[in-house]
Protein 1
Amino acid sequence: MDDVIYHLICDTAGGRLDAGEAIRKLQEHRKEMSSVEYSRSSCVLRLFRHLKNIKEKYASLISCYDVAAMLRQVIMMYHSRIPLSPELASCLSPIAETCGLYIDDRNEADINEEMPDWLPVGALAPVFELEPRRRNDTHTGDGLLYRMTGYTSYASGAQKTIVQASMNMKEGETLLACLPTGSGKSLVGLLPAFFETKGGILRGNVGERSGTTIVVVPTVSLAHDQCRAAQAFFVRHGTGRFIPQAYTSDMTGEER
């Protein structure tokens, strides 16, 4: 599949295939790609879109920079030089060095591999090899996790440690939990809340036994997203009054 995409890139950058048609063909090929191939081809799709903009609008300096940036990423993804049409080479040549590109006298583009002194040689290679960033590091779950989510294991040992630490905190203690995006920090607030309210059966209210769990997030959209995710777990509540709620600026006074 990579060979097919590479030839598609060469035909488009070389001016033998219209960028709009290249986008259509790429989208068709993407339907049959593996997840790694699909991710790799994302920069190709962006390159074609920028080439289409240049063709349909005008070869502005900004558009040329967009093409140069995507072209460099494509070369690093596919480990191959890219032949350019004379028009595209003329557009990119004045900015090639600035964008980390080298265009030879045959109009073939390659990357300029010079790196700053502070960046180790080869440090970026794993990025363009699309090495997995998440490892399968699951740890045995417990009854509470299974009761709330149906999962039999935690996503990682770190998640399990942090969740159990939050469940065993004493009054007045503070826990600082740092995990990467997508590694399950939400569970740190959800599981204790589920336990204290017995899945939403007990009223969550300041001063009462079950207490109230407050989660502060940076955006309204994230608040709504977190709320929807939490509501899926609190399905045993007797009324809608005690299910997880998103308290945001777009609420009416009555809702507040």
Protein 2
Amino acid sequence: MRLPAKLMRPRLFGTLARTRLFTLLDEHCKHTATWVNGPPGSGKTTLVASYVEACKHPTVWYQVDGGDADPATFFYYLHQAVTHGMHREDITLPLLTPEYLADLPGFARRFFRALFSHLPADVVLVFDDMHQATASSVFCELLEHAMGAAPDDANIILVSRTEPPQAFLRAIASQRLVAVGWEDLRLSIEETHAIVAAVSGVSDDQIAA
């Protein structure tokens, strides 16, 4: 079966390894979730894709879109993402059938407990383009349940053009959710030199001179 693009990690070509930010993301792993936000073109998705490639943790990648505001759509595609990301066809997760709609929080807790039971303890779940669906309070609530079910060694990375919405204030206050913002994403002088050197073929020493 051909997977939709929303479940595939972006391909990287000649990407600068931003070790400064890799270290920051490593430090944030002691928290349950990290929110990475910056304007379009700021390199946030590339940063996270290169980070999970470098850290070698098992990864599930999910690109959020407006349709994920519908819980049934979200759970359906997340099941597919986990099956694909873990290269396993035998993962069975609860189905959101009509009788569960009256207690969506209860279903979400059950779903995410089952999901993490199938995943390696050090898994990284990446939700890219979070700004596409965070206007939905229901969607944000579902992700809060994911944070609540995540084991200590697992990490959830949320990538967005916007800062965390108010729906995540409790997660921020409890430090389950921490942020990497635009000020962090800005290129340092050293990183700028490295990019110029890679593009022009001029050494860092020549640029600095």
Protein 3
Amino acid sequence: MGQTEGVIRSLDGGWQLREALGDTWQWYVRKLIDRRNSVTKAADAVAWLPARVPGAVLDDLVRAGEVAEPRHGRHSRDAEWVADRHWVYRRHVDLPPLERDQTAWIEFDGIDPGGRVFWDGHEVGAVDGLHRRLRLRVGGADQTPLAAGGHTLAVVVLPALDTEPQVGRSDRVRVLAPRVGSGWDFAPRMRHQGIWRQVRLIVGRAGLASVRARTEVELEDRTGEVVVDAVIDGSIGAGAPEVVTVELAREGRPVASTSAPVADGAVHVRLPVHDVQLWWPAGLGEHALYDLRVAIGDDERMLRVGFRRARLVANAGAPSNALGYTAEVNGQALPLVGWNWAPADLLFGVVTAARIAHLLDLVADSGARILRVWGGGLIESDDFYDACDQRGILVWQELAQSSSGIASAPATDADFIARAVEETMIAAARLSRHPSLFLWCG
């Protein structure tokens, strides 16, 4: 009998949501069972509300009529209680049959501000931080056999983090949360919670736990290189070693490919590329992009990359020891005309790729060439950076820090600084593939 094919299935639909006070969330994460008491069943049906994933808790409550639209008038004040609760998400997952050497994973791209994950009532993992991905084995090759059919996935989303509002002191900041939600001159106090990025089920022999990519280019002879680092999770069977395949294409035409064996659960690949088409900022040339496919078995990642050399150089006539203040891309100096970018919505999870595309079309139509992504908001979604790549809009990305109305001295708490460094490294690894990313700033 042949082996079952691998599966990659979106789990974005079919979710329900309910409020939890104190430790009551422990009653709601168990596997769904039928009850003989019809009154209990009716109450249970009323308590659970339809939920969107990706989404935001407060948006779900608005659609269910539980709270008034917080963006109107002063209604946000009536919704501030929401962020202080735990919220439980759940959905049914239909699992296909697993072969002996196959594994099943659940993968979350983002839970804000973090949460605990339960599979059939058993805790299988947790995540702390809105920008951290979480990949969990729920059964397979080296675990208890997992039955095909219906299972229950539940997520307990933690209360939102509280930090300094605008009129506060930045040296008192101790948590990495977008400060805009705690109250700013253009934004009410509306702290975000929810499963705000995609969720998927992956079944196969081995999977890509993480993938990061970056490019290098030599302008003189138009040769380039794509550097890929991947971490592999899963069972590596007997026989030929498991390999990771890397393929690059331009406008549907294959350009280069290679493969490399997995060693100690990881792989490092350098893929040379000849006759590179350069990525140029708006107004200077084509925003050439390449499609990068990284795969092991049935699990794959599709990323877009571009080739450009970007740097800051000293102004003309400046002293020899002057810092760089003139932008240069592919050897050509250019003025940085642009705008500030704050989150498109305080409910980050409701912002769609289409909405981002519309706003960036307006940016491009204005003649802007750069966006400064404000540090009081988000390190933005891949949809945002992909849209900037496509339009030739450079990104000035600030770290998760911002000034305050009372005192703007930086925090010196060692634990906070260590956490900030770790979060920055995670973000830098994710964003390094984007040609639009021009500089990082405090």
Protein 4
Amino acid sequence: MSNHLAAIEEYRGLRDALEAAVLPLATSVDGRRFEYQASLHGLELEAGGYVSVDAGAESHLGQVLSLAMESRELAVPGGRGQVLVRAARGTGALLDTGVRPFHDAQVRPATPGEVGAWSERTRAPGARLPVGELALAPGVPFELDASGFGRHTFLCGQSGSGKTYSLGVLLEQLLSETSLRLLVLDPNSDYVRLGEPRPDAEAAAAERFAERAGPIVVRSGVEGAGRLGLRFRDLGAAHQAALLRLDPVADRDEYAELAAVAETATPESFEDLARGGEEARGLVRRATNLGVDRFGIWSRDDDVSLLDDLANGDIRCLVADLGSLATSAERSLVAGSLLGRLWSRRAEREPIAIVIDEAHNVCPAAPSDPLTALATEDAIRIAGEGRKFGLYLIVVTQRPQKVHENVLSQCDNLALMRMNSIADLGHVTDVFSFVPPGLIDRATTFRQGEALVAGKVASHPALIRFGARITQEGGADVAGWA
């Protein structure tokens, strides 16, 4: 027995010595990507982290894209059998350009100073959005490329990941550093205080925001000067029919009457509609039976229509407080009306970023009612063709599999926060195939406020930590859509 134990100890000692002797080496055959090995003993490399690749007299900054343990059997000198040796292996990308291929170059973790110097050296011209710092290079600021928001963006993260707070940071920077107009569909009343600086905000940032943000208008379903309102006549024919649940075939007579009344009388309200003929009064009875004539969103004489606000170029940011509306039908109608109006005005080519928070309710994979179906159709149109007309989506959700695939697949930017669902991460990996899977996998370990950012808005797929807000947060835990 003692001889057996001694053999085991000898085997373990030999294995440990061989594993500790694995050199941190990298090889690149194209000067863009590299493969590497490293010892598991004292391993300092991690997926998403930065490394210095020292190839002779040249040093280049790289990023680890994947990291895994690999086992190999090595023959022991002297014919004493084989030893199973484990080592870290993976792939990476060279962040420097013009690198020549190399073999067995030394790899070591890059210092924050080296990463910061590279970031300054390669800083692209144009507007930059300082949103935080690199999570794996502490103290190194991270900026998004503002021009990248000329593509659609997808932001997702589970409850508690810091998604709402981080989106607020992003919106503040878009308002401070660009001239882009914003429309925010706010289902949880999270951004109703977007124009109010925090008492503890950094003074220079708050001053810059106040000077550059422009008029921010919030429309809510509560009484007061900022009341959210729509006029029945402002709705498109499709939204009027969907509101009354009229099918052009099954309800052909009423559908035709609605089209005729809308074309000739342009009724302001259901009261105006009731002054029509018997057929028109039938439409009013339908509205009464469905309860839509009692919606709180209908404009009164002194109200400004939300669609008028949308057309007002003096308003820099319009926040539609959907969370203050009483019913899901009202929220769907408002969201769909805004998206439909933007699509109908697309020929004006006025650049605007459309923020759809809780997007699984606005453009779900399987719409459950006519109003939501219309909103989904317009979201799909904007996703597919909106960019050439200056319509840019920022789609936000904690349930990526429930957002319509024709919206999600058109997003060229990804901001991924903590996600524990393996199924959701798998879906994100499939849709955003340009993002290294090894970095997406890290989302299960993110802390609050940390994110993976990739696409046209980022110089490289970066793990970041969002910075501090400038403005007040809205009402947390306000009941939203189910």
